[in-house]
Amino acid sequence: MTLAGSLPLAVAAPLLGGALSPLVARLHRRLALVVGLLSMAASGLVLGLAASRVYRGHPLVHYLSGQGPSHGQVLGITFVADPLGISFALLTVLIGFFLFSALLSEFGEIGEKELGGLAALCQLLLAALIAAALTADTINLFVWFEVAALASYGLTGFFLERPIALEAAFKMAVLTSMAGFAVFLGAAMLYADRGALNFGQLHASLAGPLPRPVLVGFALLIAGFATKAGLAPFHGWLPDAHTPVPGAVSALFSALMVNLGVIGLVRCGVQVFPSGHRMLGLLTAFGLVSALLGALLALVQDDLKRLLAWDTVSQMGLLMLGFASATAEGTAGAVLHLVNHALFKALLFLCAGAVVHATGMTSLSQLGGILQRRPLVAIAFTVGVLSISGVPGFNGYVSLDLLHAGLEHEQPVLWAARLAQVITVAALFRAAWLGFLRRRREPYEHLAAPRSGMRLSLIGLGVLCVSFGVFGYSIIRVVAGPAAATVLHPERYAALALGRGGGLPVVPVEFSYFGAKEVVPALVELALGLLLCLAVVRYGEPAPIRPLRRLHTGSVNDYAMFATVGVLVCAVTLLA
Amino acid sequence: MIVANYLVAAAVFCLGLLAIMLHRDLIKVVLGLSLMEASGYLMLVSMSYRRHATAPVLVNPPSGQSEQSLVNGNVTDPVLQNFCLTAIVIGVAVTGVFLAIAVRAAQHYRSVDAANLTELHG
Amino acid sequence: MTEKARTTEKARTTARAQAETEREEIGTIRARPGEVLHRPVLAFALAAGALAVLGLAVTGLPTDTAQLPAVARQAMRIALPTWGQTEVVSEVVYGSRGFDTFGETFLLLAAVISVMVLSRGREPRSEYVGESSAGQREQAELDSDGGSSGTDQQQDEARSAERREESEDAAPAELPDDLPLGSRAPDRAQAMTVVVRAAARTAAVFLFVASIYLAAWGFTPGGGFPAGAALTGVAILLYGALGHQRVNRLIRPNLLEPIEVFGAAAIVAIGVLGLVLKGSAFRNFLPLGETGTILAGGSQQLYSGAELLEVATGLTIAVFSLLGMSHDWAGDDSESDSDSGSRSGSDDEGEDET
Fold first, then answer.
1. CA A74 to CA A72: how far, in whole Å?
2. Interface confidence (ipTM) of the complex
């Protein structure tokens, strides 16, 4: 049993834990969550051992069922642990651990059947994310996509007393199922035309002019993964799905599940698909629209979790801008931002969830005064907001700077990204002020203090946010640089997937922590964002955003129409 | 002539898509998704079909063919048939969860009209 | 009690005020039943565009005269020597791409658990859960918002039928054979007539054996999935014919869940054993038996058997959870929604039919 061969154990552990949780919950309800913690620890062990080799430049490749390649044709399923995949898998395990710890302390007193179901679905979702990060096979990626989707339907509808939970679950189910069929159809068409399932084999077969089925197949794949990632115009389900769910579950969705879509887009759109056919332009366009739309709509939300969800749409757009930039800084920045976003978004959602769970109130206009009553939660939220705003010393500063540096050769895109950043700063500071920091005269009817598990998660995530910021250089050198290597050199990834071995080239990433080019724009964006925040808090919703709000009618038919428009845009762009 | 199958599958897929975009009844939306699933099955099985070929089974080859000719590829595509099985299982699972969500949503909102399920908007 | 009434009243007024302002803000695009004509035109146009794109794609696909892809030919070549299989689709399902099937199994498990979570009854919670009171507030808003006029009579009839059903669980079920011929609808007996019951019992035995045969001695190994689905069909047949009181003894979540978990754990074990003993997950680690017998295929037969257990129990749990869904999460307009699910059937006196 080699190290590469033991990678499926990292997937099997949470799957087994998920299967056992409903039974275990009957013995003692918190035991189900403890099983979750243990399965995350077991996965973490396997992935950590693998990571020690992968990060040193030796990616691990394994062919499952012993079905290796023969003359460049791969029938079996391939696992390629490249730095990008291993980073995402480790991130999943780490944040999963913190989420189970938070659930253990906050949700220990709900019914045993519901707790067993919650623990089981969370573990199944986490297992699917780990597998999707490591797989190098189109249909296998689709299968894990669907596992994650089905687990998320149950998680969205968890609080059956809230009618909006069922509404959100329905809309999410419709849009994600459409996405699933699109991915499936796309993968099947690619197999029928090219005879390839393995990413490396597929990449090799795409040399030369591409026929229509291949282009439409890729358009469907892009549309499907973009839905999962929450990019506009496929984003209709995302804000709805985050509002009624438990705090830890919305952290799971925003920090980890949307990254499944991003990984799918990067694998299929950037690594497998050959350059050309305006693919990168398409991804940049989606990224741009999402970044601006998400930021604008986050600015005017009243529901705290919905605000954070709209911000996720914006950050996913930013990630796509980075991955589609085809530069070392842009790609490394995007990888780092994926990691950082997971950390600070999980922190923000855990705080928001703690507040909703403790008080029963969800809207910003009614909240406030948390700093005086529950300082830990308020400070944790503020740490998250400072990270997302790119304040030097926190992790967001490093990744945002790298991203912006990578977009230098496309000035319009860069300025749009900076504008989105300013609006994001305004939106998040507004949330922090209205929800947590301002004074509130009337006392809360209920405001239980967070217990040790939640405190551990909040402090842990906060410390990670700060340390990823302080140790920015090391993180870039160890994690972001190597991860960018497989994205920037798709032929190396293809060769790995086909079992031809070899290491990864070193990607030089330039970053100076206190350079003027980095610090000055960050501080200017911060200042402008704070001004905008003051204006919005004082004068209310800006008029230009109202038509955008009206566009999101909440009807599932309309969101399905937006998604269809998106699919047609993908197809027309690639076919033309 | 298998192109006819492909076109029918594409048409059924678009019919399902139309049902999701047009109909406001929750159950009709679920039926639209079932149509999309069914079109997927038809598409996969049609893509696996080969003229003058037999099933990918290695016992009792039909007259005129030997086991060797089967092994060399005079059969329909088994890999696509595997994907079809996967799709069927996914279809069953998704429909089950959908119906549970639809019933619960109807209990809360007291209607199956998607236009009434717009509490989350903007 | 009064404090609670006060908070609900306050919630209702604030909710109503909020709803009013929101309706002003959003305007007429908020879809009202019966309006918004642009949607059909747009929907047809977009569907036509999708058809055009898909049509362009499928007309370029290889037709039925193309050669099989190389991976398919590879599957045909290795089926007998490496995996001991005569049926190549099963070889692909349980052998070469066994990890896909592994994912699919847990996909079904995720769906079953999702259905269980969505159809669960209400359990007591020992401390304050903020989302519950948010939910009460939202439900109150919803009830005051949309008028349920015109459906009141239907709603009352449905509710009283549900309550009667819940209360009847204590009493022995009537059989339709005991009712006089020509009685008026509705027929409230749980089971069906003696002919149907006898036929169902006979058919169930045959179907059960046929399902097991499908997995054990069909084109073996393989057939776990369809056999599991057929077993679920047997369960539903018996439920329909005999009524739920009779089948509840055997088809209970407490009995089926451990079997499902066992099936899932067995599949994980098969993968891990393949990894530990042969170096690659889901590789065959048992000796290949004689082809066409129950021992063919080595560990694939175990895989198929575990799949059968898991699919049969999982689908049955899902179907019966859906059937057993009650109405205790969304209270009626006139009731409070904070008590638990079971109600005593104390208001049956109004009914005088049959």
1. 7
2. 0.95
